[in-house]
Amino acid sequence: MEAMRRSYALLALVALVAMAAAQSATAQGASAGSSQGDSIESGLASWYGQPFHGRLTASGEVYDMEAMTAAHKTLPFGTVVRVLCLDTGANVVVRINDRGPFVAGRIIDLSAAAARVLGLDRRGLSRVSLSIVSSAAAKPPSSASGTLRVQVASFSAEPKARELAASLAGRGFQAAVEQSGAGLYRVIVPAKDRNAAGLQLERIKALGYTDAFIKSGD
């Protein structure tokens, strides 16, 4: 009788150990699975199209509003992100190639094409959640700050810089806005070589921007 009780007790102990091991494995599996595709950030999404189409992005690429790209404040260029619209459940996958949006509460600025997928082009703003699809696989393109260009002016507020860039674009310049390490917003006009930069500088100074200068470093 005593031997039977010991046998039952041993079987019960083995069952408890097996159950605990199974629960631990399940928990570990769930934890491992949750590391992929989880939301990294939530907030408001906006979008941008004209007049920025054809201008340089912060990564040095030319902005194509019909490409599936987006601007983010900190994610490395080349990072692929899934943007989930929390209002409708629609989602779109985009590649980060620009910096922004620099407006409180907004976490991503989508291209016009990506915005249409989410219906954001009609609403303007939408609540979204971001998750990483893949990290940047290669070194990002050289930023605009490393290229030869004419710096027209710099501002502490981005809207003023964008306004000047748009004004210059209306006069035929390929103007863009870049953010300096100090947080200033520079209005620049890229140039392919020193001679072209000199000609651009003359044209810009003739418009009254006498403090403009040629810049090649950060």
Structural features:
218 residues, 5 helices, six-stranded mixed barrel, alpha+beta, Barwin-like endoglucanases, Alpha-Beta Plaits, 32% helix, 28% strand
Can you offer a commentary on this structure?
32% of the residues lie in helices and 28% in strands. The protein has 5 helices and 10 strands. The radius of gyration is 26 Å and the shape is elongated. It starts with a helix and ends with a strand. About 17% of the residues have low confidence. It has 218 residues and is α+β, with helices and mostly antiparallel strands. It has 2 domains: 96 residues, Beta Barrel (Barwin-like endoglucanases); 72 residues, Alpha-Beta Plaits (2-Layer Sandwich).
CATH class term of the largest domain: Mainly Beta
The total strand number stands at 10
Number of helices: 5
> pLDDT below 50 for ≥5 consecutive residues: which ranges?
8-36, 138-145
Mean pLDDT across every amino acid position: 79
Which class do the helix and strand fractions yield? alpha+beta
Kindly report the CATH topology of the largest domain.
Answer: Barwin-like endoglucanases
Short description:
The chain starts with a helix and ends with a strand. It contains 5 helices and 10 strands. By secondary structure, it is an alpha+beta fold.
